[in-house]
Amino acid sequence: MKKKTSKRSTAVKKPKKSGLGKAHLLVVDDEVDFGKMVQKTLIQEGYRVDVAANATQAIALQRKHSYDLAVVDMRMPEMTGLELLQYLKVRDKKMFVMIMTAYGSFSIGIESLRRGACDYLAKPFQLKTLKEKVAEALRRRAQFLEEQRVFPQRAAMDEW
Known about the structure:
This protein has 160 residues and is an alpha/beta fold. The protein has helices spanning 32-44, 55-64, 81-91, 106-114, 127-150, 153-157; strands at residues 24-28, 48-52, 69-73, 96-101, 119-122. Strand 1, helix 1 (32-44) and strand 2 (48-52) form a beta-alpha-beta unit. The longest helix has 24 residues, at 127-150.
């Protein structure tokens, strides 16, 4: 007679897998602990995430890596998030950038979008909101890249 052995679940909680799970993200925030908290949250969602504490570090990281999305703080010592947004987008037109700001006025959000941000987050925000906005930005980026692949002439037409 065989002895029944109880199988205890030793499963380790794995990051959620989605079609966007392999996305490479850059988080830029001069508040180091806040940047690490955002990084940890996004890693749990299955993303690869690098963190920079200032614009100089962000620029150096972008020179080494290709990012799908950057989540950038608005107010930093070296340059504003809008200035960094413009720099990052010039170097990589396929990169999407989301602005985070503790000074979440409607006008800052509009200005961010006008300058090329895909979205903005007003601090403090719920981690659920961060996850949702990142997932949505990556979905829109995937759609943008597909449109560029299918209709390459549109890129030139959109610049009119």
